[in-house]
């Protein structure tokens, strides 16, 4: 049993990760994933500790050789340790030491899932462009064939109008008497029936449950979307995310980090719990494990497929700390015994149950005017064109007389 004097620990008060509570007796109690893990370590080492918080409430950024946040507090010797999902990297290693790594994490991003079509004429995308082009070609070819078979007994426009009406399940009024041409008519009726039924079925399915639109699933797509100006990528202020992106070998990651830094797209660490994604254009880039912990139970949130990179997580230790070797020894034993994984899974399960209770159910309602806006647009457009043609015919008739 070891007996060290009180330690001063720098941390951020992050819900579910490292929570600090004061009981009725004024004694500090820590909770959360890393809070429980740290408490188990300090209990094993028989260490008393005090928790302090940085004034800027940041993890830590390097500014002119000095560090902000909890990293800066350890660098200046104001605290002995720093805890809070801190990754091991070269820049930090120059000013602080690290404990035994207790987890491996990566970088991912989360965004809101677009749940329905936002375009008024989204129903046109039920078929892709090649399918629409093929249908148009077949329709024009069929019109030319029927016009030729009828041998000038009907105008080209009337043939076009009748065939188009048959596609909309209207009767086909074409006087084709020779029996050898009935096969042509039957083939067209079968084709138009199948295509109209397929489109009607897809349209009804779309109106009942709108399909998911295309989403951003990896960092390359995210970087391109940010560069186009359609999305904004936010990161925790003082986290390791932006420095990694700026120093990445991948050009799209460097461009993404540069854009975040230039536009100052940062959020405070505690804001990650307060639904920072206010719109479909907002994307949060951060710790893969933490993002999955927060949003894994949300059906409306998309988590990126691949990690941007992997990094080991550890406690920060001030240079010359007397108990570094003992701390690393105890941490290695606890990590090997699965203590950290146990706390992580336990807190994740508790948070999952809480979020499942709060998760909104799918809203079921009647079709609104917005859902049928495109149909009314086409109707009014057709009436407008018909009215203009009607006025034109009257003007031409009066001019002729």
Automatic annotation (TrEMBL):
GO aspect biological process, one term: detection of stimulus involved in sensory perception
Domain Ionotropic glutamate receptor L-glutamate and glycine-binding: 18-76
Keyword Nucleotide-binding found: no
TM region positions: 129-150, 372-396
Superkingdom: Eukaryota
InterPro entries hit by this protein: Glu/Gly-bd (IPR019594), Insect_Ionotropic_Sensory_Rcpt (IPR052192), Iontro_rcpt_C (IPR001320)
Keywords recorded for this protein, A-Z: Cell membrane, Glycoprotein, Ion channel, Ion transport, Ligand-gated ion channel, Membrane, Receptor, Transmembrane, Transmembrane helix, Transport
Family of the protein in this entry: Belongs to the glutamate-gated ion channel (TC 1.A.10.1) family.
Domain Ionotropic glutamate receptor C-terminal: 28-268
Protein name listed in UniProt: Glutamate receptor ionotropic, delta-1
Species, as recorded: Trichonephila clavata
Gene Ontology CC annotation, any one: plasma membrane
Pfam families per the UniProt record, alphabetical: Lig_chan, Lig_chan-Glu_bd
GO molecular function list: ligand-gated monoatomic ion channel activity
Subcellular localization: Cell membrane
Keyword Hydrolase: no
Gene3D superfamilies: 1.10.287.70, Periplasmic binding protein-like II
Membrane topology recorded in Swiss-Prot or TrEMBL: Multi-pass membrane protein
């Amino acid at each position: 049993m070891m007996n060290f004097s009180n330690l001063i620990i720098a941390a951020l008060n992050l819900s579910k990760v490292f929570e600090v509570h004061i009981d009725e007796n004024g004694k500090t109690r820590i909770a959360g994933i890393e809070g429980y893990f740290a408490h188990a370590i300090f209990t094993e080492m028989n260490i008393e500790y005090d928790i302090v918080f940085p004034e800027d409430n940041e993890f830590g950024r390097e500014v002119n050789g000095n560090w902000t946040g909890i990293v800066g507090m350890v660098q200046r010797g104001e605290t002995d340790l720093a805890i809070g999902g801190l990754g091991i990297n070269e820049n930090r290693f120059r000013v602080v030491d690290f404990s035994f790594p207790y987890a491996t994490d990566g970088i991912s991003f989360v965004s809101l899932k677009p749940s329905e079509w936002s375009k008024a004429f989204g129903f046109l995308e039920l078929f892709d462009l090649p399918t629409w082009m093929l249908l148009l070609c077949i329709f024009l070819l069929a019109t030319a064939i029927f016009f030729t078979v009828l041998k000038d007994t009907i105008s080209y426009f009337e043939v076009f109008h009748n065939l188009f009406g048959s596609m909309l399940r209207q009767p086909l009024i074409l006087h084709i008497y020779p029996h050898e041409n009935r096969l042509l008519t039957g083939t067209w009726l079968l084709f138009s029936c199948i295509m109209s039924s397929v489109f009607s079925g897809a349209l009804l399915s779309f109106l009942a449950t709108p399909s998911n639109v295309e989403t951003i699933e990896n960092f390359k797509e995210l970087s391109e979307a940010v560069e186009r100006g359609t999305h904004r990528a936010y990161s925790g202020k003082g986290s390791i995310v932006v420095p990694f992106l700026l120093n990445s070998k991948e050009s799209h990651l460097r461009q993404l980090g540069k854009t975040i830094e230039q536009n100052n797209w940062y959020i405070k660490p505690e804001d990650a719990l307060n639904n920072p994604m206010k719109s479909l254009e907002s994307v949060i880039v951060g710790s893969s494990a933490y993002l999955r912990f927060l949003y894994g139970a949300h059906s409306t949130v998309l988590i990126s497929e691949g990690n941007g990179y992997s990094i080991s997580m550890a406690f920060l230790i001030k240079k010359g700390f007397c108990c570094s070797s003992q701390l690393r020894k105890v941490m290695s034993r606890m990590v090997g015994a699965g203590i950290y994984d146990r706390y992580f899974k336990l807190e994740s399960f508790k948070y999952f149950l809480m979020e499942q209770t709060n998760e909104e159910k799918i809203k079921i309602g009647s079709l609104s005017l917005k859902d049928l806006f495109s149909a009314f647009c086409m109707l009014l457009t057709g009436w407008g064109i018909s009215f203009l043609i009607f006025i034109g015919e009257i003007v031409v008739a009066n001019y002729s007389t």
